[in-house]
Amino acid sequence: MRVGKSHYRSIWVSGEPPVIQVIDQRKLPFEFQVMELSSLEEACFAIREMVVRGAPLIGVTAAYGLVLAARGSGEGNWQEEIRRAGDQLCATRPTAVNLKHAVDLGLSLAEGLGARNECIRGLQTWAGRFAEEEVQRSKSIGENGLSLLSGIYQRKKDTVQVLTHCNAGWLACVDYGTATAPIYLAHDAGIPLHVWVDETRPRNQGARLTAFELGEHGVPHTVIADNAGGYLMQQGKVDLVLVGSDRTSRNGDVVNKIGTYQKALAAMDNHVPFYVALPSSTIDLEMQHGSETRIEYRDGDEVRLLEGWDPEQKKFRKLQLVPELSGAENPGFDVTPARLVSGLITEKGICAASEDGILSLFGGSEV
């Protein structure tokens, strides 16, 4: 997708020997910086500290993390080192299923390769293919979700109003995005759109990342406080809610950024369609219900403090928001029950948020 006049992905490989590069999303939208990942430890840091974030991108970064682990392994027990690297990667952020999915695939491949150099080459080839497959899934999600936006425009004959939560754009998904992919394709097809962008406290991924992406692509948008979404729905100013997913269980429950559940409740009460866009790599058929998910709890300072750009000093600053002695709880995700979800937009099509719906598209062997 676009940054200025250039095309970027959120992770790429360049040079010889190959260097893994990512956009440092902690700096956006005020500074555009590229970070090089040259070791397993740096890949783990990037995931844990949210240099990279978003379930699909986390999975791809983990795939390249295994490549870096293989490169950094010794000539002795290198296979055991790669297995330990898989454990380290999985421990960085526990909620998104894409992380474990990527690690399991990479470890399975590594076990079948006999020599260390063969393993390095094999993992490098696989990681590149894994990233390309994620891009194609996102593009297909966009093509399938486009019909929803087109249908609303045909009925309404006026600007389609979409509400998003958090960032499920190309920054989270290598390219195109999940929830934003239909928006980009609709915009490029000439469908008039306006996007209400939830700020998504406490880390403001909507205000800082989704707004950045949409602006770079020329999509009209307005940033709103998280608590304004329900009011806008009551006023008839939202035609569709589009969100992403970090894990979707077998029965169709959706685990996504904290606050998603509240948007789903408001959408249900106001008869606004609530759709979740996700690739098959985010579906966890081994988990029957979303309530089984291990929800990530992050540092309370993300709630206590607000980080932003000081235009006078031209640098990032942190400001304290709460009294010194106040505690802070910071769950990163919540679970939206399947009954609140109008449908799942996947690379294979749109289905009901249910076991039957998911299996009708994928079956047990394709996820």
Give a description of the structure:
The protein has 367 residues and is α/β, with parallel strands linked by helices. It folds into two domains: 2-133, translation initiation factor eif-2b, domain 1 (Four Helix Bundle (Hemerythrin (Met), subunit A)), CATH 1.20.120.420; 142-361, Translation initiation factor eif-2b, domain 2 (Rossmann fold, 3-Layer(aba) Sandwich). Helices cover 41% and strands 20% of the residues. It is built from twelve helices and 18 strands. It has helices spanning 40-48, 55-72, 78-90, 97-111, 116-156, 170-173, 180-188, 205-217, 229-234, 260-269, 301-304, 355-361; strands spanning 2-3, 6-7, 11-14, 19-23, 34-37, 160-164, 193-198, 221-224, 240-243, 247-249, 254-257, 274-277, 283-284, 305-310, 315-320, 333-336, 343-346, 349-351. The strands form five sheets. It has a seven-stranded mixed β-sheet, sandwiched between helices. A four-stranded mixed β-sheet has the order 13-10-11-16, with helices on one face. The protein has a three-stranded antiparallel β-sheet with strand order 3-4-5, with helices on one face. α2 runs parallel beside α4 and α3 runs antiparallel to α4. It is globular, with a radius of gyration of 20 Å. The protein starts with a strand and ends in a 6-residue tail after the last helix. The model has no long low-confidence stretch (mean pLDDT 93).
The largest sheet is:
7 strands, mixed
Major beta sheet, strand line-up: 8-7-6-9-12-17-18
Mean pLDDT figure: 93
Helical fraction: 40-55%
Amino-to-carboxy terminus distance: 27 Å
Output the helix-strand order: EEEEEHHHHHEHHEHEHEEEHEEHEEEEEH
Which architecture of the largest domain does the CATH hierarchy give at level 2?
3-Layer(aba) Sandwich
